[in-house]
Amino acid sequence: MRSAYLLATLLPLTLAAQPTLTQETLHNRPAYVLSNGTIRVSILSGGGHIAEVRFLSRDPARAINPMRIPHYPTIDPQTYNPAKHDSLYGDSSHRWLSSGYMGHLLNFPVFGPPSSDSEIRNGLGNHGEAPIVEWKLTNSTTTPNAVTLDLEAELRRTHFRVGRRFTLKANATAIHIAEWVENLEPYDRPINWMQHATFGPPFAEPGKMFMDTDATRGALAGAGAEFKWPELSNASARPFQPEPNSGRYIAWQLDPARQEHWFTMYNSNHPVLIGYLFPAKDNPWLGDWQENQRNTTLPWNGKVIARGIEFGSTPYAEGLRKSVERGKMFETAAFRWIEGYERLRTEFTIFLTEIPSDFRGAAKVTRNTGAIEIEEAGSSRRFSSQNP
Description:
Blueprint: H1 2-9, E1 20-26, E2 29-35, E3 39-44, E4 50-55, H2 82-89, H3 95-100, E5 104-107, H4 117-121, E6 136-142, E7 146-155, E8 160-169, E9 174-183, E10 189-191, E11 194-199, E12 209-213, E13 215-220, E14 226-228, E15 246-254, E16 260-267, E17 272-279, E18 285-292, E19 305-312, H5 320-326, E20 328-329, E21 332-333, E22 336-338, E23 343-354, E24 362-368, E25 371-376, E26 382-386
Antiparallel strand pairs: 1-2, 2-3, 3-4, 5-11, 6-7, 7-8, 8-9, 9-23, 10-22, 11-19, 12-16, 13-14, 13-15, 15-18, 16-17, 17-23, 18-19, 20-21, 24-25, 25-26
């Protein structure tokens, strides 16, 4: 495994390669790996987390994986045994998620904590059931033009089924994810449906990491004051906060005039930008969660540095009941409904591009034929991610 991994990083970037799908071990966890010789994307079967999205390159700075990899060992969360694992991950409702948390996860059907002690006793934890169950392979195809991977998960406690199709095309520096959720009950239900893209060191670095997005206005959790993007009361919302032992969460309303929303993230010390494009109709909200060694509980122990960008149906990670009680924020719904036996679908694209050391940030991101275009703020320069 190690020799194969090193060989992949040494492949010349100009060498065209047929897309491939392999089953490997990533940080001691089973993973499905999609590669096209230019980028590599790894998805964990435990929790379905997207744990790796990076360039294949000789240059370590260019080959950086922006996704958060915890400083502590993780497990496949469906194997959690309280007698064995509570001493490692704590005994709170966050323990199941903490045990397997890595990179991008699906928060469904809840965003935030359980709504009651009874839910916790019944085995429901933070951010819903989707990120703590096994995601199983249902289909895959590999051709000279593209590789696809279909994964599904049964949410037995909450009676939903979820699935994703990953598509990586030859020569692309972007991966497309088509996602669906299905209500296995005959009655309509409220849901939270959020993507949680979490970035970690060395890419996530206080004072060095910057986000750009098409947000319009937002509010700091617990404070209530309203801000206009990107200005806070006394600072810009773009950089990862530099203060140690601190954290914050800001809910941003994305531009309602757009058909497709976006955000980008980069570190001024690395030549890589990662970004997301996603449909506006499914994702009115974007949350910017920042953790800089504030949380001292197990297994975080005051060591976690992370920035999580959550986009979807709900402004705050406050749990399903509270989001229903909130109803709306900024005249926009704070949750959504799924009808009895209904299957809802959405999609998003993750893209990478190389940037210069003097990059000023993204002013606009658009999807064009064959490419995703990034307009630099304050200049006429344009950068692109290949998406054939």
